[in-house]
Design brief:
It is built from 16 helices and no strands. It is mostly helical and 468 residues long. It has one domain: MFS general substrate transporter like domains (Growth Hormone, Chain: A), CATH 1.20.1250.
C-alpha cells in the first residue's frame, strides 16, 4: 500500500489557533533541560537521582495514559483537557521554584507525569474534529511544526537566560508563564465542535499516528497512546501469547521489536546525556545550546523526510536513520576517552547531537509509515495499543537501566549499550521489510480477480504529517 507524504504544508499555520501550541512546546522543551540541571546543580544530586526522577515520571505516564484515554472518550471536552494539562504544568513549574529537596522534586515530577498524557489524546482528537479529511494532512503537519518551532524557542530562552547569569529557579517562572499562556490561549481561542470522535479514530489516520509517535520533550521519552485500552486480567497473558503465535509470520512483531529497541536505547541515552554534559564541564548555557542544535536540525530536516521516504522507501530510510543514530551514540562514547578542553567538548557535542536530531526526524516519518501500512485492514486500535505499551515499557526500562548503570557502570558503558541496542535493531527492520514484501507478493498471487468486475481503484491515503 502506497502512502503519500507531505511534511511541510502549503502554509505554515493551517489555522491561527494552532499558534496556541507554540508556548507550551517552548515550556516543555525548556523544562526537559532544566529538570536534570536542577537535580545536578542546586540540589547537588547525581546521575542516579536524574535516573530515579525519569523512572518515576515514565511510570506515572504509563499508568495515567489508560485513564486519560478513557476520560477523553467519556467526556469529549477537548478544551478542558488541554487547559487542565497545560495549566497544571504552569502551576507545577511554579511549585518547583519553592522546593528544597530531592523527594519534593520527585513528587512534583511524578504528578507532571500523571498530567502529561491528558493533552495528547485531546490535541489529536481536536484536530480530527476541527478539520475535514482533505485538510487533516496539512493540519497535523502544522501541529508538528508548532511543536518544532516551540521547542527551539524554549531552548533559546533557556540559553540566553543562563548566559545572562540568571538562576535556573527563576527560569521556571518564565516556563510557567509560557505554559499558562497556552492554557489561556486555548480557553479563549478555541471552540468545541459538535462532531465528537473517540480515541479509536486516531488510529485510522497515518498523520495522527506520526504525531503521536513523537517523543516528549521531558527527557525525550515516548508518551504511550492507547486507542484501544488494554485489560490487564487473568487472561491477558494468554491473549498476548495467542496473538504472538498468530502474528509469527507477519512483519508487525518485528516492527514492534525494532521499535522497542529504539525506544529503549533512546531513553537510556537521553536520560544520561545531560548528566554526562555536566560532568564534562559544560555550563548550563552550553547544555541548552547543545539541545538547540538537536531541535534546529529537526527543523531543517523534518520538511525533507516525506520526500526522502517517497523517493527511497521507508524501509531503507528507517535503517539508515537507525544506523546513523547508533553511530552518534558510539561517537559520544568515544568522547569519554578524549580529554577535551571545554570548547572542544562543546563543539563535538553540538555536531553529534545535531546529527542525532536529523536522524530522529527521518526515523519518525519512516517508522510511522511502516507501522501504519502493517495495521491496515486489521484491528488497528488493539495493535497500536500493544505497540504503545511496549514503548512505555521501553521508557521505564531505559530509565531503570540508566539508574543501574549509574551505580555499577559509567557514561561510556551507557552510550556503548545504547549504540549496540540500536545497531541490533537494523537487521530486525530489514527482516520486517522482507516479511512485508513476502506477505504482499503472496496475497497478490493468491488473489482471484473476476474478469467481469472492473478493477478496484486503490484508495488514496491521506498524507502523513516528529523527535530527539
Amino acid at each position: 500500500m502506497a502512502v503519500s507524504l507531505r511534511t511541510w504544508p502549503a502554509r505554515l499555520v493551517a489555522r491561527p489557533w494552532l499558534l496556541a501550541f507554540v508556548p507550551i512546546n517552548a515550556a516543555t522543551a525548556g523544562f526537559g533541560v532544566v529538570l536534570p540541571l536542577l537535580i545536578l546543580i542546586p540540589l547537588r544530586g547525581t546521575w542516579a537521582d536524574v535516573a530515579v526522577a525519569a523512572t518515576l515520571y515514565n511510570a506515572a505516564v504509563i499508568l495515567s495514559s489508560v485513564a486519560w484515554g478513557h476520560l477523553a472518550d467519556r467526556y469529549p471536552a477537548r478544551r478542558i483537557f488541554l487547559v487542565a494539562n497545560y495549566g497544571g504544568y504552569g502551576l507545577l513549574y511554579l511549585l518547583l521554584t519553592h522546593l528544597g529537596s530531592l523527594p519534593a522534586l520527585y513528587a512534583i515530577y511524578t504528578v507532571i507525569g500523571f498530567l502529561a498524557p491528558a493533552g495528547a489524546s485531546a490535541s489529536n482528537l481536536l484536530i480530527l474534529e476541527k478539520f475535514t479529511e482533505k485538510e487533516r494532512a496539512t493540519a497535523f503537519a502544522s501541529f508538528q511544526e508548532m511543536s518544532i518551532v516551540g521547542s527551539v524557542v524554549g531552548l533559546l530562552i533557556g540559553y540566553f537566560w543562563t548566559v545572562a547569569g540568571d538562576q535556573l529557579g527563576t527560569l521556571l517562572y518564565v516556563l510557567a508563564a509560557l505554559a499558562l499562556g497556552s492554557a489561556v490561549a486555548i480557553w479563549f481561542g478555541i471552540r468545541e465542535t459538535h462532531r465528537k470522535l473517540t480515541t479509536r479514530e486516531v488510529a485510522r489516520h497515518p498523520e495522527s499516528l506520526s504525531s503521536r509517535i513523537r517523543l516528549s520533550d521531558a527527557f525525550r521519552t515516548a508518551v504511550p497512546f492507547f486507542p484501544h485500552r488494554p485489560r490487564p486480567n487473568r487472561g491477558a497473558f494468554a491473549r498476548f501469547r495467542r496473538w504472538a503465535a498468530e502474528e509469527l509470520h507477519h512483519e508487525l512483531p518485528l516492527i514492534m521489536a525494532a521499535g522497542f529497541l529504539f525506544n529503549l536505547s533512546s531513553n537510556l541515552y537521553n536520560i544520561s546525556y545531560t548528566p554526562y554534559l555536566y560532568s564534562a564541564g559544560l555550563a548550563a548555557s552550553s547544555i541548552f545550546l547543545v539541545n538547540v542544535s538537536n531541535n534546529f536540525a529537526q527543523t531543517v530536516v523534518f520538511p525533507l523526510t516525506g520526500g526522502l521516504s517517497t523517493r527511497f522507501g521507508p524501509d531503507r530510510i528507517v535503517r539508515w536513520s537507525s544506523y546513523l543514530r547508533s553511530l552518534g551514540y558510539l561517537a559520544t562514547a568515544g568522547f569519554t576517552l578524549v580529554l577535551f578542553a571545554r570548547g572542544g567538548a562543546l563543539d563535538a557535542n553540538l555536531l553529534v547531537y545535531a546529527i542525532l536530531g536529523s536522524a530522529i526526524a527521518v526515523y519518525t516519518t519512516s517508522s510511522s509509515l511502516m507501522l501504519f501500512r502493517s495495521v491496515q485492514g486489521r484491528e488497528a486500535g488493539s495493535l497500536l495499543g500493544v505497540n504503545s505499551a511496549l514503548g512505555g515499557v521501553a521508557a521505564v526500562a531505559g530509565a531503570g537501566l540508566s539508574g543501574l548503570l549509574s551505580i555499577v557502570g559509567s557514561f561510556r558503558l551507557v552510550f556503548l549499550v545504547s549504540g549496540g541496542a540500536l545497531i541490533v535493531s537494523v537487521p530486525i527492520w530489514a527482516a520486517a521489510s522482507v516479511a512485508f514484501h513476502r506477505r504482499k507478493s503472496t496475497s497478490e498471487e493468491g488473489a482471484i480477480v473476476d474478469p467481469k468486475e472492473p478493477a478496484e481503484r486503490p484508495a488514496e491515503s491521506p498524507a502523513i504529517a516528529k523527535t530527539h
